[in-house]
Each structure stands twice: as C-alpha cells, then as structure tokens.
Specification:
The protein contains 15 helices and 13 strands. With 371 residues, the protein is α/β, with parallel strands linked by helices. The strands form two sheets. Strands 3-2-1-4-5-6-7 form a seven-stranded parallel sheet, sandwiched between helices. A six-stranded parallel sheet has the order 10-9-8-11-12-13, with helices on both faces.
C-alpha cells in the first residue's frame, strides 16, 4: 500500500513515538510510507518525510496552518490510505492517541486544574476536532483504548461501527526484567536510593494531566513507608515542582528528575510505577513497566488499565485523587507479593507485543484501502 501519515512533528514521545514505530514497521513490511509534518528532526529508514510549510508565528497559527495545509498537500497525490494523528480535519483514518480534546478540557475543569474559559488555542483545536469527527472528516477512527472509543462516540456522535480499538504494543526486548541487576542498579546508585528503600517512579510530560501534583501531595501528607518517589518528564512547572519539594523538606524522599533519555533504565531501577493521570488515552509506560517486570499502580481513567487483569488488576484504583487508595496500592505492590506481581506483569506484557499491534493496524489500513 501507498500510505500517508499526517502529524505536526516526528520528534517527541507519546504520539510521535507511536508514529515513528508504526511508520518504520509498515515500511519494513514493504509498504510505501510518507510522513507529512512541519519539521522532522529525525530520519526513519524507508520512510519519506514531506515538509508542510506553516507560518512560524504563534501557536494558534501553527495549529491551524498545519490543519489546513497538510490535507491539501496530501490530496494532490493518490494514496491507498491517509492517516491523521490528531488535529487534521480530513483523512481516511483518524488515529486518536490522546482522547478527545473536549473530554480533556472537561476533566481538567472538573479537577480544578484549569478554568472554564477557553482561549484561542483551545477553541482552534475544538474547531479542528469537530471537523475531524464529522462524516466528511474521516472514514474510520482508530482509538487506542475503549475509553477513547467511548469519548469519540459520546462527544461527537460518531457511529460506534466506525471506531476500531487497537491497543498499543510494547517492545519486549527493550524492556526486560533482566535489566534490574545491571542498568537498574546503576540508576538506583546514581539517585542515592538505599538498598532497603523502595523506589516509585512516575513518568510523563504534562504534570497536571499526569497527576504528578497528586503524588507530591501524597508524599507531603501521607508518605508511603520507606519509599522514594522519582518524577520523570518535562513540564513548564518543573522548577515550581522542585521548589515545592525543597520548601516542604521532601528532598530526601522525592527526586524531580525532569526529562530523561534512559526510561528503560529508570524502569529497571523501579520497584513500582505509579500513573495517577487525570486523563490518559492509553499510557505506553504502563505496558513498558509490565514488560520490565515492574508492578503498576494506576486508575480507571488510564486507557492501558483496561489491559490490567488478574493480580495486576488489584493495583488499579477507581480515582487518581483517592490518595488513601493510591497509598494502599503502592504498599501492596511493594510488599511480600512484589515478585509475584512482577512476574504477572511481564506475562501480561507478553500478550501485547508490538508486532501484534502492527498486524491490527495493517489489517485496518487494508480494509480502508479495499473500500
């Protein structure tokens, strides 16, 4: 197949990482892949990157410029399938890896993280989203979790039959329990985590959405016994978080690390991963931790929690702001059952390898091309 992907950029985590792996994987299977983006920043073997000229001035201008220009450039050529990775008004397949923006704003408002008034940026995204989910904006929707499927159907009245749920997969070699004794031990030493102390890691960018403030509150008011928290990820509030940790005298129990390029090693060092997101369409780090043999404490608001069953399902709390429930789950994850939970987590991850995800995406694209 001749396939076009549309997304503003290739560099980054989350959706960008998914796009890179998906494009590279499909190209390796013999498909012709073209990625239309504002800027690449990385090169992918066998994948052509096509620059979309967009005005450089202002965030709103960039969002609207790409949304209007990318589909026009794509429409000049013939494709078997065109996939938009969010914020493009026309495509064959709308791949929704972050949930709907309408649901995101609603949850952040209810949580008191943001006000009800919407600025030009959020209004622009909602304008694009409305067209993306209109009958003329897509032929199929690819949702990364059932919770995303429900958001799309509820927020924009998209017929359920048009929405396919394809869960993300994980690289079972990059994330593996054998790294605990090597890369994990080195990270624990660098972070000065004593051997008799548990390490809880929280990984993700956008601290308000990821619920990092909830973890800081937990460690301030009801800190789990003999457990250090390491916060990994980027955010404009990073310095504020560090000042808060220092002002509350938490520097011996909380490490705000910022962005890191060694996430596999961070997970190898962890005793437990905590994902208390207020809104999380999937959360690749959940499967990555499972593949590394690390128990995961998370909430029902995280899409990947839909995959956590058996012993791993016991660590899923109903609400991320239920701090006593989070604390109890963290203690269970790092208690006498930790080894058994780690083994169960690895077995769960092995049911979701990346190649299986790629099989399902490829089948969906062939279906669209056949139409």
């Amino acid at each position: 197949m001749r396939i076009a992907f549309m997304h503003r950029q290739l560099r980054g985590g989350g959706t960008e990482a998914d796009l890179r792996r998906m494009a590279g994987g499909l190209a390796a299977r013999g498909h012709e892949l073209h990625v239309f983006c504002m800027r690449a920043g990385v090169s992918l073997p066998g994948v052509a990157t096509r620059r979309v000229p967009v005005p450089a001035a202002g965030r709103v201008a960039r969002v609207l410029g790409f949304a209007l220009m990318a589909p026009r450039l794509v429409a000049r050529e013939r494709w078997d399938a065109v996939v938009g990775f969010g914020r493009t008004p026309r495509q064959d397949v709308a791949r929704i890896g972050g949930g709907t923006h309408r649901s995101y704003l609603r949850r952040m408002t209810v949580a008191g993280v943001r006000g009800r008034r919407l600025g030009p940026y959020h209004r622009a995204i909602l304008w694009i989203e409305g067209r993306q989910f209109s009958p003329a904006g897509h032929r199929r929707v690819l949702a990364v979790s059932d919770s995303v499927r429900r958001e799309v159907v509820a927020d924009y009245a998209v017929p359920p039959a048009q929405v396919a749920v394809v869960y993300n997969g994980v690289d079972l070699e990059q994330y593996h329990p054998t790294a605990h004794a090597t890369a994990g031990a080195a990270v624990r030493q660098a972070l000065a985590v004593p051997p008799d102390t548990r390490l809880c890691v929280a990984i993700g960018s956008g601290f308000a959405r990821k619920g990092m403030d909830l973890l800081l509150h937990l460690w301030s008011e009801q800190p789990p016994d003999r457990m250090v928290l390491a916060v990994v990820g980027g955010d404009e509030r990073l310095d504020r978080f560090r000042r808060h940790v220092a002002a509350r005298g938490l520097t011996d129990r909380v490490r705000v690390l910022g962005r890191r390029d060694d996430v596999p090693a961070i997970l190898a060092a962890a005793d437990v991963l905590c994902v208390p997101s207020r809104q999380e369409a999937f959360g690749n780090v959940v499967l990555e931790a499972c593949a590394a043999g690390v128990p995961v404490v998370t909430s029902r608001l995280v899409g990947a929690a839909e995959l956590l069953d058996g012993p791993c399902g016991r660590l899923v709390v109903e609400r991320p702001d239920d701090l006593p429930a989070l604390r109890a789950a963290l203690h269970e994850a790092t208690g006498t059952a930790q080894a058994a939970l780690g083994t169960a987590a690895r077995a769960l991850a092995e049911r979701h390898p990346w190649h299986r995800h790629l099989d399902e995406v490829e089948a969906l694209l062939r279906e669209v091309a056949g139409d």
